[in-house]
Amino acid sequence: MEWKEIFRGGIMKKKIRCAIYTRKSTEEGLEQDFNSLDAQREACEAYIKSQMHEGWILLDRQYDDGGYSGGTLERPAFKQLLKDIEDDEVDIVVVYKVDRLTRSLMDFAKIIDVFDKHNASFVSITQHFNTTTSMGRLTLNILLSFAQFEREVTGERIRDKFEASRKKGLWLSGTTPYGYIKDDHHMLHPDPPYVDNVRIIFESYLKIKNVLKLKKYLAEQKILTRSGKELSKGSLYHILSNKVYLGKIVHKNKEYEGLHDAIISEELFNDVQNILKANAVERKHSTNAKTGSLLAGLLYDDKGNKMSPSYSNASNKLYRYYVSQAVKNPTDYEKGQITKISAGEIEKFIQDDLEELLQNTHKMQGFIENYSVEQQRAILNNIQTFESDKIFLRTVVKRVDLRVDRISISYDIGYIVKYFATMAFNAEFKYSEDDEQIINNQLDVQILLTPQRQNKIIIPGKRNYDMKLIQAIVKSFWYNKLGAERKLPPEARNGNNKRLRKLRFLPPEIIESIMNGTQDPELNVKKLIAIADATLTI
Q: Which of 61, 78, 209, 280 has the smallest CB count inside 10 Å?
């Protein structure tokens, strides 16, 4: 933008566009008719008027940040000011004090760089700095250094004060916990009737075991917040896990004995934590099950690297895989022979093995031999009629290790026994880490690397049907039949589908092996077409 000019005393002067920036760290007092921001702006306006003879004019824009710390540049008005400077719409920024711009020396250097790049400057009306001279910048840097030092020292003092108060068992800051009131000496005291509400929340959760259902129940019982609103899901989680109700003060993951009275017993608190923990695990498993990543966090390659879910799209179809961390981060992990495997293939393999384990009456009986004969019969009956789902698989499978010659699956047999025993006796299901009993099921397989750099599971003595190959063969014969009848669809005349028609010339023994699931494990559609081409040229 070109400089505008004004005429003063027969001399043409450049018009210098001035922007006033104001800031206040807190929102306290901003609701007043005349606040700190107004005072800063008024003083800056007066200074600009005093410089009218130099061509200074005030832009009709306000850059006010109320309630924003000078320790960060993430301030909406200040970001807009910088943008206007970068657009060459501001020549001078006028502030009441230099720390209104920033309290950080590092941030100040960044601001000055922006100013220099766009030939802008700034003025502090109470400190009179000229940023165009080296001495002015030195003075500014010294001032800002002291401002930053003061800010850091103040922060340290506040933090030390908080920690010392917490060690003494006092509640110095933050929202007063639900069920308590705070006196002038930062002591917490039970707050009737909300203290009774806290007990009801803990005792009810112990019975209901679900936060969403608990929220609904409390709303029906008119158990509300201090402001008369329904307790939110987040606030209930916070209450149920807050050790302040045990008479504790927690600061930076450290526990201190509080001076206040406990509202609930340690036994009740621990029982609630066990349920919260168990539900958290179940939610995690359920989420992974719903998203399709049944083995997320459980699958490891032959070098012990975790294999994480990966996805790709081809022809508007989603393909899922598990890929080794050594592929994603080759510099951080040692790469083995197992790198990438079809998610559907490995998940089905684990699902089949789990069902086989559950249906193995002899093996399962060995895990429940501590029960009476009658109880064993009831447990086995429930196992036999049980249909395993994804969530159950996710819960009982603890780890899967892939090797080129075997797959090792770790199951929590303790959970399985407890689950079916509870079902058989129509009892309440309670499970803890003490019940955990891990068994390892090792299966002999052959894991090959396909030409597509993908691992494939081959089970010795078992037919391995490849649906891609079978579909290719079926399409070939179908397209040729339609071609003979002059009914060939357009898609059969293009691309891969056109080449698929050649598969009818495959040797009969290859087609038979594909249909029987006994084909070469490394065989794919591309190789089939190459074999068909070779057959045609003979």
A: 280
